[in-house]
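Intended use. Records like the one below are meant for learning the mapping from a protein sequence to its folded structure. Do not use them to infer anything beyond what is encoded.
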Amino acid sequence: MPSSKQRTRRVVPPLLLLLCLLLAASANAQRLVFAHYMLANQDTTADDPTGEPNIAAYQREIQQAQSIGIDGFALNAGGWSKEPRYIRRASQMFEAAYRLHSNFKLMFSADMCCSNDAADVLDMVRRFANNPRYASTYFQHDGRFVLTTFAGDSHGPEFWQQLRSNLEHGTAPSRLTAPNALSTVAGVPSSAPLRIFLVPSFFWGGETPTAADIASGLAPYQHILDGAFYWGIAGSPGLGHTPDQLPSSAAYAATLHAAHKLYMAPICFQFWAANANRYYEYSGYQGLRALWMQAIQTTHPDWVEIITWNDFIEGTYVSPIDDPAKYPGANDLGASIVPTGTQRFFHSHRGATDLLTYFIAWYKTGHQPTLHNDTIYWSYRTVLSTAHQPPIQLYGPIGDTLYVTANLTAPADLTVAIGPIALTVALPAGSNDLQLPLPPGPAPHFTLTRNHVPLVESTADDPITATAPTPNLYNSTGSMHN
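Structure written out for the chain above:
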């Protein structure tokens, strides 16, 4: 019979291992993924007075987002009392999530760049967090309703301290009605006290701040904020020099975690500020991968926010919408940059949607997902020329390039044909990025084979032109899998 000491050696290690696994699982379970949703934009063809077509469209988008692992939307409200469409659309979005009963969470990202003031922010939170129908849909962390922002640091600490106090004590009651919104939220909202978890996105030190910038910016907010979100989109991830947002994200994570604050990190697919004439090259999915791998391996943010689900003008969208230009309400600014008669100015980003599933699972579990299927993802600009008037500021390694990411269960051969030009490359197993030359021609055709046996083939959506009368730096993406 073994001694008690021997029995201890046999029993304790498995118990310790189990405890470690349980603790790890508990920690990973707190990792949440949100997507920034522009309420100004709609994937729908109608704005029926009943709201039903929009509710159905929002339900479809929620299901699309949940299917890839997104936990909720941060609703960008660029206006409120002065632009009542925002209240109407927010009510339709909350109703869509409520009807699905799928635990999809919504919170507000108060856009402080332009027209919103304190009364607007108070109203948007109260109108839904204090509504008995929608309170359970509004995202809460540790029993507190989460509020994030786009910008707002220019208002100063006193503004945010007072706003927080008003929400938590029920002071400065709302008086706004919303007759154009769904009847469930049309009246004056309750000003009952609400516990708030405040995670704004302030631009401390600009778009790519240093650790000193962030520490200096955080200092006067130590007792006001519960965390912060870095709006790290204006950069080329992994560039190695300015503008590269990875060092700034690392500095945000280190500073906030040292201060015992929550950090929400950015995940972006590309950034073209088409209405501001600047473009940042993300090299297909390589920039997306760099941001995810930093979050997974280095910075360990509590949450991440994908920028964005549907900001079509800035090209950041990851929704699988086929072509935003098809929908009259898809982008309120669309008409200002898309000439009449231009076809396929915007492109589907469904390839980015599909690939996010892989990285979201990795981030949430802490373990690289096992590949059970072979999948090819592609991304490319449909207009090769970058010589435009007025000139566009270009950042990053821009070339005439077809970007491919391959997630393969075993080595395989990929053949890409663009008209009469065909190229075959041998790909290793695993998840890898590659770049191929991209000439003008018809939409690329992809064929994946293994041991000379065809596995899957597909043709991309859009042809490639050398030049175009209108600058177009949006990526066309897609994917295929067996």
